[in-house]
Amino acid sequence: MTDYILSIDQGTSSTRAIVFDHSGSIVSTGQLEHEQIFPRAGWLEHDPNEIWNNTREVIGQALSKADITRHNIAAIGITNQRETTVVWDRTTGEPVYNAIVWQDTRTQSIVDRLADGDLDRYRESCGLPLATYFSGTKLAWILENVDGVRERADRGELMFGTTDTWVLWNLTGGVKGGVHVTDVTNASRTMFMDLKTLSWNESTLADFGVPASMLPEIRSSSEVYGTASASSLLRETPIAGILGDQQAATFGQAAFDRGETKNTYGTGNFLIFNTGEEIVRSKNGLLTTLGYQLGDAKPHYALEGSIAVTGSLVQWLRDNLGILSKSSDVEKLAKTVDDNGGVYFVPAFSGLFAPYWRSDARGALVGMTRFVNKGHIARAALEATAFQTREVLDAVNADSGVDLAELKVDGGMIANETLMQFQADILGVPVVRPVVAETTALGAAYAAGLAVGYWSGLDELRANWKEQKRWEPSMAPEERDRRIRLWKKAVTRTFDWIDDDTP
Ligand code: ADP
Hints:
The protein is of the alpha/beta class. It is 33% helix and 21% strand. The chain has helices spanning 48-66, 108-115, 123-126, 135-145, 149-154, 163-171, 184-187, 202-208, 245-252, 311-321, 329-334, 374-400, 417-427, 439-451, 458-464, 477-492, and strands at 4-10, 14-20, 26-33, 45-46, 73-80, 86-89, 99-100, 158-161, 181-183, 217-219, 222-227, 238-244, 261-265, 269-276, 287-292, 300-307, 344-346, 364-366, 407-410, 431-434, 467-471. The N and C termini lie far apart (62 Å). The chain binds adenosine-5'-diphosphate. The site of adenosine-5'-diphosphate has 16 residues, from α10 and α11.
């Protein structure tokens, strides 16, 4: 009997395989971290072969922990770190270079060259500003800088993919007939896909110098792309869902309809707001992106607010200041004081992302007095996550004209109840935590299960979503306004820090 769906979550720090049952509960998990390769400051790479080997291994772990075989798996879904770029040879399967990870900033000069003074040149077509974050300039860098790659690409010998595509191609047989496909959500992070036509934009490709023959076929997020190859543990099992990680988390939160939203609190924060079938162009520093597309149905679009530093600020307190022994201790330390003691901590460590997009900003701790102790700093660090989220949500409200009624949350930081209460207070709307916190893997499982009829439709998935806990706002509106005003003032103190002669 095919009782389960297997989800592959190819993340930035690890790859996981999770087996889900019909109620959306986790049956078993396999997980392996991969090496973070830092060749220079600002560069970050992964070894694509290590990622593929780990994928095979974690599938084996998950199946054996659940004591099941491929016969019990109805379909496979894939979710992935987005934007991370792999190029490989279609006849040998060998990558021509390491994967260039989304956080890698080596392509700033390509960004500046293509922008020619206008970072929004491609926004009308793809919904994104020119930035090192997206796949486009990473692929251009590989074509321009790795020996022989330009010629091989022009001869049609190479393939490009984000890590969903790399895993799918290998899982479906690689050089022996692997399918070269991505889904609309991942394609929408390259800068090459036109939001309206959902096809590659030839004039953008020409500007970036990318031959169309390298690109995968763009398909929906929920359909059968192929079956696992004979040599895999899952042979003949259909692979039937692909969603980029943040879109998968949104789907796993059952935020299927226009106006629904989720916020993921991890290393950084990613808020996604479903705009239904409408493409909303942001005037307030958000990205326009694909939400999901189920088979032949019309796609759902989304606005996204990406915040670079949230959970990683807690890691910084732990690793760089040494005032915590583990991340979760931040709550205890923050609770040693009643409030932030007047301190605001703006973690503009790599500039500010949404909604400011200021690469000239750097971090600031303001409002310091002799009274301030490490408890206040811990509290200010947690509050920074809540204030940044508030600003992204204000941008969403301004762009969409819709005021949010509540916020569904997921990710590692939501274990922190002090933060969740403060978040509700600063938003003025309830914050809601679901029972299944592994929403990313669950979303990909949902997309795959829908395609093969394992689940009957969205209503059944909505019924799977269960609230675990809710925080109601309790701060007086005047007090909330006062604190937001101070936060905004603190943010202005981080601007214009980088000068032309800053090394
Ligand atoms: P990612 O998927 O981005 O790797 P996770 O969702 O696993 O991240 O969340 C990990 C992040 O959450 C880390 O940056 C860590 O510092 C932070 N974190 C974990 N537990 C807590 C906690 N109890 N309070 C605040 N932050 C936490």
